[in-house]
Amino acid sequence: MHGTPGRPPDCDASMMPPATKASICGCRPWAEECTSLLEKAAGQGHAYAMHTMANIHRARKEHEQAVAWLTKGAEAGLPRARRSLGRYLEEGNGPAAPNCPAAAAWYKRAGEAGDAEAAGALSNMYAVGRGGPGR
Predict the structure, then answer these.
(1) Is the separation of the CB atoms in 118 and 85 below 8 Å?
(2) pLDDT score of 132
């Protein structure tokens, strides 16, 4: 997959929907324009665009930018962004080490906003002794 003409060499969009993969990884000629429009919408406060921008940067292995956009989306109240940020922090993607207490806090906020998957992730963290007070 990494040698495809028109696709950035370090694009890893394996966890994204097909349409998002196409636009992020440069598989379509309009991908750059779409990314530009998404970035504009995200900059204007659109939480779903913020989350998508995070996915774009994560696929490009631009971890600092991914965390920045996830944080903005999470702070804007998008439960999906809160869960994604929790997962990102739990796994310690990129150069950052895992931060289980911060991950648990974001999972909790997402779960409180109705994200069942985040509530399950928090439950799993607590079950194995990670992310709780003093851990």
Answers:
(1) no
(2) 67
CATH number at residue 72: 1.25.40.10
pLDDT tens by residue, 19-71:
555 555 555 555 777 888 889 999 999 999 999 999 999 888 899 999 999 99
In-domain check, residue 93: yes
Query: Does a structural domain hold residue 133?
Result: no
| 8 Å CB contact between 118 and 83 | yes
pTM, entire model: 0.74
pLDDT of residue 110: 96
Q: How much is the average pLDDT of 94-122?
A: 92
Q: What's the number of domains the chain is made of? A: 1
Please give the residue range of the domain that contains residue 59.
Answer: 18-127
Give the three-state DSSP class for 12: coil
For residue 62, being part of any structural domain is answered with yes
Is 8 among the domain residues?
no
Region label for 53, one of left (φ > 0), alpha (ψ between -120 and 50) or beta (otherwise): alpha
